[in-house]
């Protein structure tokens, strides 16, 4: 497949994923804010209330992650250049947000309920964060190749 | 940082990732051991009238659940194998941008999407609930990233030819 073909395919797929990410971000944000602002007076169990708070915070962080992902795919769809410094920084921010998602909601809920009652760290989120940092490094290498290619041309 | 330094750094990170992924899978598998679950909270997974409920389950549901369960296990194994294959090829090759890695990422993405569909269908058949996770989106992102890796392969070829 030629370079122009790959670039065209990258543009198309990035645009599609950008739209899906935005829809996902909107839905997740709605779910998060609904859980955060909903009337919890009817729920008598304090544990359930705080777990709802944890899920709400998690959903809000996830929606921010999806918005940043949409921004990355928008930039790729715009100029078909995935290996840019901006995208590397954005992927690192996503990795950082995954780390925050792994720790922050649990710590906030843990302050109310006591740390013994909850699992402090979300292992899935830490795994995602490591994966994003790794992808960031690969993109950095791609950026080097892109610079070389531009200089040659 | 020059190319060689960057590649060696990527290799080190890939090797650490291989160990991390294996540890993560082992941890996840450990959680499913019956002894661990019973010791943690006794009877949380018991279902009142489980045998009676199984008797009442329609035949079509049982007939659909069996192939779905097999497909679920198969796609899960494919995801794990494809993920490890990807990390191994990243830690062994000279550059992360080659056709093999690009194909592995695409396979991983497609298997994630298939896994999510099978899981949703299996949950609908067995538990009468519909829960759609975010793995299908991760699969789509991986499919898009396979194209990015293909673009990287072209850049890598250009760079090798220039040298």
Descriptive report:
The complex is a heterodimer of chains A (about 150) and B (about 160). With about 150 residues, chain A is mainly alpha-helical. Chain A has one domain (about 5-150). Helices cover about 85% and strands about 0% of the residues of chain A. The longest helix of chain A is centred in the first third of the chain and has 35 residues, at about 5-35. Chain A starts with a helix and ends with a helix. The mean pLDDT of chain A is about 85. Chain B has about 160 residues and is an all-alpha fold. In chain B, about 80% of the residues lie in helices and about 0% in strands. Chain B contains six helices and no strands. Chain B has helices spanning about 5-30, 35-40, 50-55, 60-90, 100-125, 135-160. In chain B, α1 (about 5-30) runs antiparallel to α4 (about 60-90) and α4 (about 60-90) runs antiparallel to α5 (about 100-125). The longest helix of chain B is centred in the middle third of the chain and has 34 residues, at about 60-90. The radius of gyration of chain B is 21 Å and the shape is elongated. The chains are: A mainly alpha (about 150), B mainly alpha (about 160). The interface between A and B is medium-sized, with 35 and 33 residues.
Quick description:
Chain A: It comes from Ruminococcus flavefaciens. Chain A: The chain crosses the membrane at residues 15-36, 56-77, 89-112, 118-139. Chain A is mainly α and 153 residues long.
